[in-house]
Amino acid sequence: MTTALPPCSILLLAGGRGQRMGGCDKGLIEWRGAPLVAHLHRVVRPLTDDLIISCNRNPERYTPFADQLTGDAEADFPGPLAGILAGLSAARHNWLLVLPCDAPLIDQALLQSLHQEALSHPDSPIIVRQGEQWQPMFSMIPRELLPSLQQLWQAGERSPLRALLQLGARPCPCAEDDPRLTNLNTPELLRG
Question: CB count, 10 Å around CB of 37?
């Protein structure tokens, strides 16, 4: 049974260069008979009425999987923090759940854990942490932090992790070997 999260917007990051995939648009790469983005869509669609995809190309192919599309404000693929800023700007709810398009093994239990941490720390970003390794592409960010993140961007910060840690990020602990956090971001991992 699907349990909806309390109202939050969900952002799927699919706006990268795909360098490790030979320049392919990762969200549209086929895995187990469907594009990677379709696997995430299946998990998150029941959880929100505001599903956002950050993409910088192929918008016509992403449209069926989203309520709205965003793109980076700057050209030349400036990185995931640009996608997060665009998602926060577009979000209709007070929280934005951020996920990478190449993590098709996520499940609703992981997303519920992130949300529970967010409820316990309503003014802080929440980032999945595997042991000592932070995973900023799996995070919950209060929309009210958008101006602070924009200031960090204007000051030259491009790392989502450094930016969120500066804003008091709290961990959502996961096991170091948690398979749900696997990024299928190379041809070898896709075949594995």
Answer: 25
* CATH assignment of the domain containing 107: 3.90.550.10
Write out the two tokens for 58.
């192929």
Q: What does DSSP say about strands 133-142 and 126-130: parallel, antiparallel, or unpaired?
A: antiparallel
Extract the tokens encoding 63. Answer: 């449209």
The total of structural domains in the chain comes to 1
Question: Cβ contacts of residue 84 below 8 Å, gap of 6+?
Answer: 11, 13, 54, 96, 98, 141, 149, 160
pLDDT tens column, 47-87:
999 999 999 889 999 999 999 999 877 766 678 999 999 99
Residue type, 128: V
Distance CA 4, CA 115 (A): 11
Q: Dump the DSSP string for 128-166.
A: EEETTEEEEEEEEEEGGGHHHHHHHHHTT---HHHHHHH
Please give the model's pTM, rounded to 2 decimal places.
0.89
CB-count burial class (<10 Å; 0-12, 13-18, 19+) for 32: exposed
> If we measure between CA atoms, which residue out of 136, 137, 186, 124 comes closest to residue 161?
136
